[in-house]
Specification:
Radius of gyration: 21 Å
Catalytic activity: Preferential release of a C-terminal lysine or arginine amino acid
Strand content: 15-25%
Distance between the termini: 68 Å
Shape: globular
Number of domains: 2
Low-confidence stretches: 1-15
Domain Peptidase M14: 116-411
GO biological process, one term: cellular response to xenobiotic stimulus
CATH superfamily of the largest domain: Zn peptidases
Helix content: 25-40%
Structural class: alpha/beta
Number of helices: 13
CATH topology of the largest domain: Aminopeptidase
Number of strands: 12
CATH architecture of the largest domain: 3-Layer(aba) Sandwich
EC number: 3.4.17.2
Order of helices and strands: HEHEEHEHHEEEHHEHHEEHEHHEH
Mean pLDDT: 95
Signal peptide: 1-15
Strand order of the largest sheet: 5-6-8-7-9-12-10-11
């Protein structure tokens, strides 16, 4: 009886895992208003997964639109698109094959791997061991729990000092499926600790400043991408009156909340929640930054994909008060990044550079008074999208380190 129960539970678990056999990722190029209308009508009639932009309402003439089309809708979608005369290209021919290929290191290394997409349990163990092994450089703080009760852990990196130091805050993993983001925060922590004493810039930074790192913001969603649905994006909270779960945490901050590029529909991937900071994860982060507002001089949030370095504003086309300086720093950081592998990033304020989107953490932090507020959209430009292979973790993190160090150096020299 116990054996039958065990196999029944296994079968139930397997049945709950979302598969993507035959799904394709298409890149569309709408060049007419009619094309934009076609895309929006398709989104209303079938279940499309928008990779970039993040929903149909953000589609405009001239932009590249990447969508995942489930296999059962392909014939109909292809017919509609071909009848419209819109340019299209198949970027990923079979999404499940791309999911399976993403994990290249099949073995389980004895030590924590920085070139592997680690599970939450691996990351949690790693944070504990890093704090224990480097107690003179790293301290750990739980800033609150997620909706499902998992800890949100911030690592404070810096040479211990008797006085309070200015700080930089960096987070990764707002959107669960953006795995390269989580990988970068782990890479940064390890690089910071190992480079201290040998790298003069890193040594100076950690002597004079602290860096708060939140390696996984959306822990519940990240766990779900490993266990049930690789393409999950939002948090995992329950929405009253709806069977759809989760909120887009990067639409849940008090920065033009829910005015543009966000949705009031709980089933939307850009659902803004019931109010600013209605998600416990958003509130935990905001509370921590508010508590440390006097010392936090920069906010850096890591996302993917598009190869962009963005700064405020995204909820309005108005330029930030510090626009010229923010742009100069972004261009310098992008140039530093490009110097290693030739990877080209586009820099600029969020709304005109990528698309308008209200409720973002970077805009919120800037309006709070954190002058140097930046969003990275890491590799690539759509060939793999959210399914960047593990072989690209190392070069992506190496080049991104150069950009982050550039920003940090500027902040360190221009404290306010």
């Amino acid at each position: 009886m116990k054996v039958l129960l065990f196999f029944g539970l296994v079968a139930f678990a397997l049945a709950d895992v979302t598969r993507f056999e035959g799904d394709k990722v298409l890149r569309l190029k709408p060049v007419l208003n009619e094309h934009v209308k076609v895309i929006r009508e398709l989104a209303n009639s079938v279940q499309l997964d928008f990779w970039t932009p993040e929903n149909a309402e953000q589609v405009t003439v001239g932009m590249s639109v990447d969508i995942r089309v489930p296999a059962q809708y392909l014939d109909m979608v292809f017919t509609v698109l071909q009848q419209s005369g819109m340019q299209l290209e198949v970027f990923i021919d079979d999404v499940q094959e791309a999911v399976d290929r993403q994990i290249e290191n099949k073995g389980s290394p004895r030590a924590h791997s920085y070139t592997k997409y680690n599970t939450w349990s691996d990351i949690e163990s790693w944070m504990n061991s890093m704090a224990t092994a480097n107690s003179d450089m790293i301290s750990k703080e739980v800033i609150g729990n997620t909706y499902e009760g998992r800890p949100m852990v911030v690592l404070k990196i810096g040479k211990k000092s008797g006085s309070t130091k200015p700080a930089i805050f960096m987070d990764c993993g707002f959107h669960a499926r953006e795995w390269i983001s989580h990988a970068f925060c782990q890479w940064f922590v390890n690089e910071a600790v190992t480079a201290y004493g040998s790298d003069s810039q890193m040594t100076s930074l950690l002597d004079q400043m602290d860096v708060f790192v939140l390696p996984v913001f959306n822990v519940d969603g990240y766990v779900f991408t490993h266990t049930n649905n690789r393409m999950w994006r939002k948090t995992r909270s329950r929405n009253a009156g709806s069977s759809c779960l989760g909120t887009d945490p990067n639409r849940n901050f008090n920065a033009g909340w829910c005015t543009t590029g966000a949705s009031t529909n709980p089933c939307s991937e850009t659902y803004c929640g019931t109010a600013p900071e209605s998600e416990i994860e958003s509130k935990n982060l905001a509370d921590f930054i508010r508590k440390n507002k006097s010392i936090i001089k920069a906010y850096i949030t890591i996302h993917s994909y598009s190869q962009m370095l963005l700064f405020p504003y995204s909820y309005t086309y108005e330029l930030a008060a510090d626009h010229d300086e923010l742009m100069a720093v972004a261009k310098g950081a992008s140039s530093a990044l490009r110097s290693l592998y030739g990877t080209v990033y586009t820099s600029g304020p969020g709304a005109p550079t990528i698309y308008p989107a209200a409720g973002g953490s970077d805009d919120w932090a800037y309006d709070l008074g954190v002058k140097y507020s930046y969003t990275f959209e890491l590799r690539d430009e759509g060939q793999y999208g959210f399914l960047l292979p593990e072989s690209q973790i190392k070069p992506t993190c190496e080049e991104t380190m150069l950009a982050v160090k550039y920003i940090a150096a500027h902040v360190q020299k221009n404290l306010y």
